[in-house]
Model the fold of this input.
Amino acid sequence: MTSLLIGVRNGKVVGLKLNIALSVVGAANQLKTVRIFNMRRLYLILGDQLDRDSLIFNDVDKKNDCFWMAEVNQESTHVWSHKQRIALFLSGMRHFSEELREKGLPLQYHFLEDQQFSDLAEALAHTITTEQPEEVWFVRPGDYRVFESLVNTCKQCDVPLKQLNDQHFLSTPQDFMQWAGDKKQLRLEYWYRELRKKYQILMEDDKTPLGGKWNYDESNRKSFKKEGPQDLPKTLSWPADKITQTVIALVNEKFPDHPGTLAELHWPVTQVQAQQALSRFFENCLENFGDYQDAMWMDEPFLNHSLISTAMNMKLLHPLQVIQTAELYHREKGAPLAAVEGFIRQILGWREYVRGLYWMHMPGWLDMNALEAKQNLPDFYWTGDTDMTCMSQSIKQTLTYGYAHHIQRLMVTGLFSLLYGIDPKQIHQWYLAVYVDAVEWVELPNTLGMSQYADNGIMASKPYVASGNYINKMSNYCKNCRFKPSEAVGENACPFTTLFWDFLDTHADTFKNNPRMGFMLKNLERKSATDIADIKAQAIKIRSLP
Ligand code: FAD
Ligand code: SF4
Done:
C-alpha cells in the first residue's frame, strides 16, 4: 500500500513524505493534512453531524481510513440561505475538524474558499476517484436530497456504501415504521407515550406517567398580562474566535445578497458552548417555559424558549441528555411538572415524530399540495416590510437572528401563508432558507404538514387556522397594528381575519366531514351571502397587493 502524508500552509507544501501525484485541498492560511493511498474506508461527516460519539468513530484504522468533510456552494444556495445559517454550519464544521485533527484522525477537508466543487456529489466523486477507497461509510443525512445524491454517487463510482444509524435520535426510521404498522392515523401523542415508556422518562412505573397525566398541554397556553414578560434572562453570545471571524468574512464576501445579517450571532458552534446554552435555559427559563410557550410579545424574539434547536440539529447536544436533565430539574430542583413535561414533549415527542414521518413519506411529501395553493410568496417575507405588525415582527427578527419561536412560525408566518394560499414549495423553501436550525427532516414536516396541511392530514388532524383574534389573544402585536383583528372587511380589516373566513368558505367542502373543523364551519354558516361576498372581495384585494 502506498501512503503519503502531506501538510499545506499558505499554499505551500510542508512535511512532504513521499512524492507521488496527489490532489491538495484546502484554503490558504490553514494547515491541512491530506492522505493519499489505497484507502480502506472513507468516512463522510456532514455539516449537521458534528457528533463526537457518532458510530462513525467506532472502528477507525488511522493508517488506512480517512474522514471527509466538504464545504460546497450548493449547500448554501439550493435555497437562498440566511447568512447566519451558512456561517453557523461552516463555523461548526471547522471547529469540529479542528477537534478531529487534535485527536490525530486523518481528515480530508474541502474548504469553500477553494471553490473546487459545486456540490457534495461532485466533491465526493472526485475523492473516490483519486483515493479509491474500498468502502464509503456515512451516517444517514438529514436531507433526503443529500442522502440520494451520496447514494447515487457511490453507485456511479461503484464503491460500496455503508449506512450507520444516527445515534443522535432516540428512535430510528425503522422503529417508527414498525410502530406505524397499518395504523390509520399516526398521532404524535401515542408515539410520544411509546418513547416515554421506552426511555422511562417522567414515569412512575413502567406504565404510569408521573403525576398521572401524559400531557399538560392545556396548562401551557397562557398569554402575558398587560405589563408583558418580566425579568427575561439575557441570551448568550460568544465572541467570534478566529475560525468564526474567517467564516463571517467569507460569507459576507461570497453571499452578500443573501438574506439576513451577521451582526449578531447567538448560536453555539462547539459542544462546550452548546452546554452553556443549555444551562442558561435550565437555570433561567425552564420554569416559565410551559406557561408562556405559545405567547408572543413586541420586540421580544426569544422569551423563555431554549434556543437549542441549532445545537441539537448539528449534533452538538444529545437529546437524551437534554431530556434527562430536564427531568432532574423537576425531580430534584422543583421545576413545575407541566413546564418540564411540555419541554420534554417537544423533543422526545415532536422532534422524533417529525423525523419518523419524514423518512416514511419522502420523497413524495415534497410535491404534495392538497389544498391546491398557488400564490407566489409575497416579497415582504424577505424584508418584513408590511403593515401587519405580527408579520413584520416575526420576519424582521428572523432576518436579524435567523430565529423565530414555534408559535411565530406556526401561527404567524405559517398561518398567513396557509390562509393566503402560498404555493407549499415556495413557503417550504423560505423556511428552509431563513432559520438557523433548518434541516429538511425537521423543517419539511413542520412546514408542509403541520403548518400548511399540504399533505392532507399526514401530520395534523386539521389545518392550524385561526383569525387575527388568536394572535390578539396570544400577543400584544395587534395593539401596535393599524389593523383590527376582529374586523374582516373594510379599511381596518385584519388580513388574517379576512383570509380566515375566505379559507373556510373556499375549503368548506374539503373539511365538512372533519369533526375538529365543525365548530368553525358552523360559525361560517352564520355569515350572510353578502358578508361572504364582501370577504371574498377583500381577500382578492389582499392577494393582489405586492
Ligand atoms: P423551544 O421552543 O425551546 O423547544 C425545545 C426544542 O423542542 C427545540 O429546540 C426543538 O428541538 C424541539 N421542537 C419544538 N417544537 C418542535 C417541532 N414542532 N418539531 C420538531 N422539534 C420541535 N425546528 C427545527 O429545529 N428546524 C426547523 O427547520 C424548523 N422549522 C419549522 C417550521 C415551521 C413552519 C414550524 C411551525 C416549526 C418549525 N420547527 C423547526 C420547530 C420549532 O419551531 C423549532 O424547533 C423551535 O422554534 C426552535 O427554537 P427553540 O430551540 O428555542 O425551541
Ligand atoms: Fe396581525 Fe391582524 Fe393583529 Fe395586525 S391586527 S397584528 S395583522 S393579527
Remarks:
- The radius of gyration is 25 Å.
- The chain has a mean pLDDT of 92.
